Amino acid sequence: FDMACNSSGCESGGCYGREKENGCKVVDVKETVRLCVKCKSNEPMTFGDGGSDDGRFCAECFRSNVYGKFRLAVTSHAMITPSDNVLVAFSGGSSSRVALQFVHELQVKALKNYEASRDRSLPVFGVGVAFVDESAAYPSLSGGMSDAIELVRSTVLSLSPPEKDLHVVTIESVFGSESVEARDRLVKLLDSVSDETGKEDLLLHLKMLSLQKVASENGYNRLVVGSCTSRLASHVLTATVKGRGYSLSADIQHVDARWKVPIVLPLRDCVWQEITRLCHLDGFDSLKTVELARHPQSGINDLVSSFVALLQEENPSRECTIVRTAAKLTPFYFNKIPETDDSCVPMATQRRLKKFNLKYDGSMTTEAFCPICNGPLNGSDSSEDESDALYAACCSSCRFQILPQEPSSLDHFGSLLPHHMISQVKHHQKFDSQTYLREKIKDCLLLDDEEAV
Amino acid sequence: MEASEAKSKKQGASRLCCLCNQRRPVLKRPKTLQQICKDCFYEVFEEEIHQVIVKNGLFKAGERVAIGASGGKDSTVLAYVLSELNRRHSYGLDLFLLSIDEGITGYRDDSLETVKRNELQYGLPLQILSYKDLYGWTMDDIVKMIGLKNNCTFCGVFRRQALDRGAALLKVDKLVTGHNADDIAETVLLNILRGDIARLSRCTSITTGEDGPIPRCKPFKYTYEKEIVIYPFITESFSSILDYFSTECIYSPNAYRGFAREFIKDLERLRPRAILDIIKSGEDFRIATTTKMPEQGTCERCGYISSQKWCKACVLLDGLNRGLPKMGIGRARGGANGDHHKETKKPASAGRSLESKQCGSLDF
């Protein structure tokens, strides 16, 4: 939006209409050469996309603004530290492309510092890339998939040195293999979900599971996801309309360490407009074919995206306000990087992490989680009906939109779910904190159970 | 979930009511999509409200309760159902109708006629308070001065205080309003969109203002708007008792709330229970208790409850009387509360913000 016009040294690019109102002294703006408002030396970039802030910054300053937000997120939340091995989830879309680019640039800088330093004390973090082939779930994608994968491969190749491993996995890999049986099982599982939105969401959960699998099997300890402010704004609303208000704050923070491999969101503070402009600027090809084939979807998720787009038209800062509101909700203990007994973390980093309270004690698990969506469970969600373990273990949203409504079908449905989801059910069937804590400390107890505190 | 239900519903169209299995179904219940007969609808509609009242301990025997009656569908159905349940379940309540005349020609004067009829039909004593008497301004006067952009703000603020004053006049212990599930869901969404975390934490409470002048509660918190519309409509004999005024306020077209309302209607079509899910989310949001209650004092000018030096109504009134009707609209600026505003904003941009500020900052 337009900044107030300061008549001495007018900085506003859109000052024309406000001349009379604010007594702006710039009478003949067309004759004056407009300069970037930040560096005041280069010509501003015009994207012509009808968005806000167009024609205010030059290409370099625009780029450094966005990169600056990325870097600030990374450092202030200890997302990537020298000893880390980072996996970037790459869908081929604009957001993850920018995430990949920025992580690469960060890595290049770290490599430069490493080679320039005398004692080589700070190692360079590793970066890998993961792409999930969802054609088993969206058959319309199969046609263009091999081309898409080729594009992904060449993109990753172009981002070296340093070299990055590319892991291409199918969505059905969550079942432990990439066979025809696994593919069939996926199709059967999705078919047994009658709710359109439930199906879409289940697929998202399976996708995360497959990313987690790739990450942990290949020694990565961080998963970078390119979600931007705009995506999170939609998520705030979809979570609200699905009754997931309790777990919402877990999903929208910079760090989500519920998972075996903690997820970090370095682009959380960047808006979609910045991302698309950057892609345009840097000439990134987006895998439009992959993205477009996934549409049209007729569920709640799509309805919300359209609603947010409508709100954005009415007020371009609406997405930011939505995420800012949700950010005022109390996060969970796992929304920080977990403390690990990692002796290879450099001392300087360790001191810094402790100083800013950026980590939490990983053994503190006071929440129970839904086996399907991994959302923290609200006490009021627990059902008296414990006749089915899976039903009892799930959150009310998954119970409604994903689980079959017929109790008799629950067993069969459970057998179709990936092992990882079900194994949690047996384990957390009745979360007994007393027993759990006792288990943790039993090695230290000298007395018999009855005599212990 | 809905797909299979809808399928079986189509097949079962010729079957019997889901609930009683005796009578022929006449409608598909908006909340659950069940096919039910007329009698079962009344029963389940009234019983659910009774359960909400009981489970949330909304009333105590012997209480004097004023029903905020606008003449619209929600408050008319509320008055009818509440007096029915009061009788049927012996709540022991003394019920009154309290109506506020905002002074909107062609709208409020018509709906007041409805409330006057209700007084006779339900046998509930009626008290009418007007903005003219309370504040010296009618909504017609206000709109003439400020136009159609922020008029809902004035009306909402004035009405809230008017209801409290009316309740004090009637010496009632409690106020009930006809806010339904759709209203509350809308408010949750609006507060998210506007960044109002404090209101977000309060807006799903079924009872509010317990530490204020008059506690007010919303027995229709879980009742769907569609069902409130169906209730009197379903037979002629009912609709003659439950006549209500169904036009929208003539000043409302620019309400920002309309965005959220359209969205919720679309949502309801996809998944009826989403309305209740929004309310559930609102109840479950993790909001630190420190953000919940603003410090409450009293207005220096009129003595009404207020978290600022002057209550909002006084600020707005002062603006109107001084010919500066934009005072009190948008972020806090000059005037009596100038020293107390929490958010600081650059003065130059305040001009822009009040231009673009839509009405819809209705205090819930």
From TrEMBL, chain A:
InterPro entries: CTU2, Rossmann-like_a/b/a_fold
Record carries keyword Transcription regulation: no
Residue stretches in coiled coil: none
Record's keyword annotation contains tRNA processing: yes
SUPFAM superfamilies the UniProt entry points to: Adenine nucleotide alpha hydrolases-like
PANTHER family membership: CYTOPLASMIC TRNA 2-THIOLATION PROTEIN 2 (PTHR20882)
Keywords carried by this UniProt record: Cytoplasm, tRNA processing
Biological source species: Brassica napus
Signal sequence range: none
Protein name: Cytoplasmic tRNA 2-thiolation protein 2
TrEMBL record, chain B:
Gene3D superfamilies given in the database record: HUPs (3.40.50.620)
Chief subcellular location: cytoplasm
Domain Cytoplasmic tRNA 2-thiolation protein 1 C-terminal as annotated: residue spans: 297-327
Domain tRNA(Ile)-lysidine/2-thiocytidine synthase N-terminal: 65-226
GO cellular component: cytoplasm
The protein's enzyme class: transferase
Domain of life: Eukaryota
Localization of this protein: Cytoplasm
InterPro entries: CTU1-like_ATP-bd, CTU1_C, Ncs6/Tuc1/Ctu1, Rossmann-like_a/b/a_fold, TilS/TtcA_N, tRNA_thiolation_TtcA_Ctu1, UPF0021_CS
GO BP terms in the entry: protein urmylation; tRNA thio-modification; tRNA wobble uridine modification
Family: Belongs to the TtcA family. CTU1/NCS6/ATPBD3 subfamily.
Descriptive protein name: Cytoplasmic tRNA 2-thiolation protein 1
Source organism: Brassica napus (Rape)
High-level lineage: Eukaryota, Viridiplantae, Streptophyta, Embryophyta, Tracheophyta
